[in-house]
């Protein structure tokens, strides 16, 4: 009987000791951060994905942190009236050309082709030369008076090959003696995100 009690006691003590043994702590694993999760320019895109690291905080950006650029493509008819067989720009029309210069200064990535057109009075050769001279007169004013880089400008004369209408009246001839500014380029104006503090301008 004593043998059975003693054996039972040993088993009980062994179980207690085993249960109280402190298990070994698992080895700590330090995970190395592979990507830079910071957003240093505050545009909402982490550095690991940000391809435009100097975005203005609060501006609209795409998934890689760059602002949305818009293509510029428009044709603007300058309200210039030339006398028949003349490429002289009268002073009262300078404001029309200045508006194009202001636009180009605001959009430094833009370029402009100045198209010269003429009425169907005189020979084809004469009007081709005349329309080219009119376009070049506008380009010269843009560069010399309003300081637009000549490398961003091009002058093309079309003569009377692109008339507004087929009428041969004096009014139609006057309308055909015109200049068009064909603008192209990229608009990089910064658009800001809307938030609850946004107020219409």
Helical stretch tally: 4
What characteristic shape results from the CA principal axes? Answer: rod-shaped
The count of DSSP E runs of length 2 or more, i.e. the number of strands, is 4
* Helical amount: 25-40%
Structural class: alpha+beta
Q: What series of H and E elements makes up the topology?
A: HEHEHEHE
Q: Round the Cα radius of gyration to an integer and report it.
A: 38 Å
Short description:
The chain has helices at 2-20, 94-106, 124-144, 170-176; strands spanning 70-78, 111-116, 153-157, 179-187.
What does this protein look like?
The protein has 4 helices and 4 strands. It is an alpha+beta fold. A 4-stranded mixed sheet has the order 1-4-2-3. Strand 2 (111-116), helix 3 (124-144) and strand 3 form a beta-alpha-beta unit. The relative contact order is 0.16. The model is unreliable at 1-5 (pLDDT under 50).
Task: List key phrases describing it.
4 strands; alpha+beta; 4 helices; disordered N terminus; four-stranded mixed beta sheet
Question: What secondary-structure arrangement, pairings included, does this model have?
Answer:
Elements: H1 2-20, E1 70-78, H2 94-106, E2 111-116, H3 124-144, E3 153-157, H4 170-176, E4 179-187
Parallel strand pairs: 2-3
Antiparallel strand pairs: 1-4, 2-4
């Amino acid at each position: 009987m004593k043998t059975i009690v003693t054996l039972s006691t040993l088993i009980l003590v062994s179980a207690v000791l085993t249960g109280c043994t402190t298990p070994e702590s698992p080895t700590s694993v330090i995970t190395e951060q592979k990507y830079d999760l910071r957003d240093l320019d505050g545009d909402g895109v982490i550095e690991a994905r940000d391809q435009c690291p100097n975005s203005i905080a609060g501006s609209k950006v795409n998934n890689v942190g760059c602002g949305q650029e818009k293509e510029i493509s428009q044709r603007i008819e300058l309200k210039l009236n030339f006398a028949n067989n003349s490429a002289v720009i009268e002073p009262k029309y300078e404001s029309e050309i200045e508006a194009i210069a202001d636009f180009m200064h605001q959009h430094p990535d833009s370029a402009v082709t100045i198209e010269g057109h003429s009425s169907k009075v005189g020979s084809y050769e004469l009007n081709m030369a005349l329309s080219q001279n009119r376009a070049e007169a506008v380009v010269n004013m843009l560069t010399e008076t309003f300081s637009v880089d000549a490398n961003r400008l091009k002058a093309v004369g079309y003569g009377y090959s692109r008339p507004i209408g087929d009428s041969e009246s004096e009014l139609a001839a006057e309308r055909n003696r015109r200049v068009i500014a064909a603008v192209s380029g990229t608009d990089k104006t910064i658009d800001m995100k809307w938030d609850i503090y946004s107020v219409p301008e």
